[in-house]
Protein 1
Amino acid sequence: MSTINVLGIFSDDENFKFSRYTLHENGTLGITYRGEHRNVGIRRIKHDSIDFELMKKYHHNCNVKTTAIRNLRVIDCKGPLSQGSIQAPQNCRYAALSYVWGSNGPVSSSGAASGPIPPSKVVEDAISATLSMGIRYLWVDRHDQVSQMGNIYSNSEVTFIVAAGEDAEYGIPGIGTTPRRRQLQEIIGNTELLQCFPNSSYAIASSKWATRGWTFQEGVLSRRKIIFTDDGASYICQFFHNSEIMPKPLHWQQWPTEKMKGLMPRLDRIEKFAQDMLQNYSRRNLTHNSDAFDACLGILQEMANANIGQIWGVPIVYRYNRYYAIWLEWEHEQPVQRRPSFPSWSYLGWVGPIKWCAIPGFRTEKMAIGDTKTAFYNIHSLFDNRLKFLETRYSCLHLTGKVFEPVMMDTAWIEQDRSYRFKAYQTVENAYGERVFTRHLADGFYAHLKICNNIRMLIRAQLDVVGFVLNESETSGTEVLLLRARDNIYERVGFFSVSYWGFPTECKRRFHSY
C-alpha cells in the first residue's frame, strides 16, 4: 500500500510562523517534501465530528487557576435535560456556553424568568461537547445570575463559543445534526491536496455572535475557550491559540493574531486595553436597550479589580499618582440615537460606536453625582475611601468648571470659501508620507467660537448648545463638552477638542482665558 503525503508549505527557518498562511480570508494550501515528517501543517478534518481528543490535549496544556462560584446552578450532563438546572456541587468543574439566542430570547436581563432552561439544539449539542471534554456540568446563561456572569465565565473550566448560525436552533457545527463545511481534497498519485480554511478570526468576525452585546464580555472574560465555526474548532487560552485543522506544536505558544485580539482582548492587560474594550463593546448590538449596563457588567467588575473605577460604565482612573480623572472624552463619528434609560454623559446613553478622543483629564474633585437638584456624593472623596465600584442610583453629573456659549449662525457659503484643503501624514509601507485632502462645507447652522481676532472655529450644529471646558492647556489644547438645555438640566450632545499646534501665541492665550 503506497504512502499518501500531505501537501504543505514550509520554511527552513525553525522560527517560521506557519499560521500566517491561514490568515487569508479565502484560506490557503501548503506543500511539503515527499516522505518528510513534520509535526505541523494542514490536516484532514471531518465535517460531521470534532476532534475533541485534540481539544483536550490543548486544554491540558493551559493551566488557569479558578475560583469556586457560590449559588451556581448548572446542568448535570449525565442526567436528563428535562430535570433542568441543579445546585452545583461544591468546587465542581463546569463548562460555560456562549451563543446567540435569536428571536426567541428572554424579554431582558431584568425581566427574564429564572425557571427551567428552555430546550434548544445548541444546549443539547453543548451537553455532548461537555461530556466529550471529560466535564460533567454545564452552565447556560441564566439572567437571574447577571451580577455573577463575569465570575462565572472567568472561572469556567472552558467556555464553548458558538460563532455559527443565527439562533439557538442552529446547534454546534460538527455535533449532532449540524454539519461543518466539507474540506476539499484531491489525490494525485501518492500526494493528497487538502484545503485549509481561513484563520478562525475571519469566521468569528463575520458571525452573528460577534455582533451581539452580551457575547462580548463572555468572550473577553473566559480564560479558556473552544470556538466552534462552520469551518472547524479552535482552542484559545491566555497563552496560545491553536486550531483543529492546522495544529502547531505546543511549545510554539503564541497569542492569537491581531484580528483575534480585537475580538477577544487579553484579560490580564485590562488596565492597558480598557478603552479599546469599551470602544469595541459600543459597536455591539442589543435587542433591549435596558441591557446596556448589565451586558458589560463583568468587564466593569474586572476593571475595578485593576483599580479602574466606573460610574454608569464611564471609567475613572488615577492619573500621575495625583488625582482621579473621569473618561468623558469620547465622540460618535455619525449621528446616533439616545438610550433614555441611561445618562447622556455616559456612552451607554447612546446607541452606536464611540471613539476615544484624548487622554482622560477631567478631575473628579470637580465632580459629584446626584439628582436634578442636589449633589449627594463627591466622586473624589468616594474613591479616596477605596470605593471602586460606584452605585448607579443617581444619574445626574454635577460639574464645576468654565462654560461658554457659542454664537449660532445660519451660514451660506460662497463657492470660493466652500472648499478647503488640509495636509495629513500617512504611513505607507512603513514610511511617512504627506497627503493633501479636500473637504467641502455644507450650508446650515454653525456654532461660531471666536478664538482670537482673526480666527474663528466653526462647529456644524442643528441646535443651541453650551460649551463646558473639560480640560485646557496652552501647550496641548482644549477639550469641550457640548451641552443642550433640557427642562432644568443639561444633556450632553457632543464633544470637540482644539489643538494649538500652529496657532499664534496670542490665540492660545485668548482661548485659554474663556
Note: DSSP finds eleven helices and 31 strands in the chain.
Protein 2
Amino acid sequence: MDVCGFNQTLLISVKVSAVWFVRVLAVSPSLNSDAEKALPAFPLGWKINIVALYYNHLGEQFHSHNIQTTFATNRDDLVHLTTDKDSKSFLVQTVSPGLTVLMVQGHPTNPSLSDYIPLLVLPAISEPPGSLRPGDVICFNSPVTNLNDQRGRWNVSSSQILQMNSETGAAIAKNSGTVVVYYKLEGGQQTFQQVVVEPASLPLVSVPTDRLLTNWPEASEYIVSVDLNTSAANTAQCTLDQWEAIEKNLQPKAKLQCLLHFSAPYLHMKTLQAVFHASSFYDINTAQYSCRIYVRPQSNSILHVLSTVSLSISLSVSLQTQSSASVPLPFPLSSTSVQSSVLLPYVPAFCCPVTEINLSHQQPVAEITLFGTKDMLSTLQVLSDTPDIAISEFHSAEDPTLLLLSVYSTSHFLDQASSTASITLYTQLSTQTHKVRVTRVVDRQESGQLKAYLHSEHLFIGTFVLFAVLAAAAALFIAYNTMLSHIQTQPAVYPDSITDQQRNLLVWLTPTDRSLQRRRWLWSAR
C-alpha cells in the first residue's frame, strides 16, 4: 500500500528562564452592587477563586513552571482555603467578618517569590438596628447583584424562628433562637448574616383613658394597645414592596390573639359573644400591635336586655410562640404562649325604644321610657332644641333601672299649624346619643272645627261672588239702556239732497212716538 500525503514539521521554541516574582489574580465572577459606590469588602460567605502567576525579569508571564506554590493566612478563623490539584489556584471561602492577610509563596528562601493580599470581609446584609423579639417585623436588604443587575432570593435556616419572604427580604420573628439569613444570587454565589432573636417578653396591655367600652351599636371601635417590647427601628428601612409583602404574606396580626371573657349570667353569654368581637391589628406606620373591639348591630330587644345587665368584660392577649432549642430535637416543638389579661372598663348603653312623639291640644303631654343601669341613668342629660318644649324626669324607687321623661309643650308650640322639635338624650359616660322627634299634630276636635270653619268660609265667599256678578250684570244693563234711549230721542234731519227712497228708509228706521212712549212707560216710576 502506498502512503500519500504531506510530511509537516513544526518547530516550537521553548524559552526557559528564571522566575523573578509572583502575582496573585482573582478569577472569580466580578462583584456587582446597586449602590453608587463599590463595596468596601468581600461579602460574608462569598467564594473567591485565586490564581498564582509567575513572571520573568522582563515581566513576561510563564505558561508553565515547576514551582510548588504554598498558600497561607494569618487568620484561619476568617477564611477557609482549598487548594486545587495543580497547586496553582485555590478557593477562598469567607466565613467570618474581619481582616486577614493571604500569603502566596513560591520558595521559602526567596522573598521575591512571595505576594501578600489583604482580605477584608464584612456582612453584605443589613443588620437589625435593634434587638429582635417574637413579634418583631424586620426588613433585610443587600446591595449585591449579579452581572445583569438582578437581585437574589432570600432564605433562612429555620422558618420556626424567622418567617421570611423570599422575594423581598421582609421577615417576622416567631420564636427565640439563633438563625442564619441567606441571600443567594443566580449562579451559586451567596452571602449570609447571623441573627439572634431574644426571648419573648410579657405583653403590656394599655386600655384607653378617655373612654369606656359600651355596647352601643354606633360606637367607634375600642382600641387597646399591646406592647410586645418590639422595636419600631427595625421597620424604618422597609421599602414599599416589603410593606406590601408584610401585609399580604407575613400578616403580623395573625401572630397576636385577642380574646374576650364575660362575667355574666349564663343565659346572656351567647348574646354577648354575638354582640362583641375582638380582633388583632398591626399598624404598618407605627409598627405597633393592638386589639380592636367592635360592636355588632343589635335589635331593640337585645339592647333592652343588655342595658340593665350587670357584667364585667376582660381581655386576654397572647402571642403564639414555640419553645425552640439550638440543636435539632427528634420531637416536634411544643407550642407555648405569652399571655396577659386586663379588665376593661365597661358601661352598658341605655335603651330608649321611642324615636318620635306627637303632641296636640287634647294630648299636650307625652312620656318617654328609658332603661339603663343606675349609674348610667344618673348621668343622663336631656336637651331640647326649642324652649317651647319642657321636660321633667321621674326616677322609679321600685325599679332603679327605669326612668320616665314627661314632655310638655307650651301654647305657642300648639298654636302653630305645623311644628317640630327634637330632644337629644346623651350621657357623659359614653359617646351614645339618642334623638326623639316631637311633632305637633291635629286631633279630631280640631279637625272638625277646621272643617266647619272652612265650610262657612267657602259659603260666604260663594254668596259674595254671586251678588257681585248680579250687581255687575245690572249695572251693565242700565248703562246699555240709557245709552240706547239717548240715541233714539235725537230728531232726524233730512237733508235736501236725500232722495225719496232714502227718506222712506230713514222713516222706517226711526221709531214712532207710540213705540217710544211704550219704552218710556216700561221704565216709568209709575
Note: The chain is about 20% helix and 35% strand.
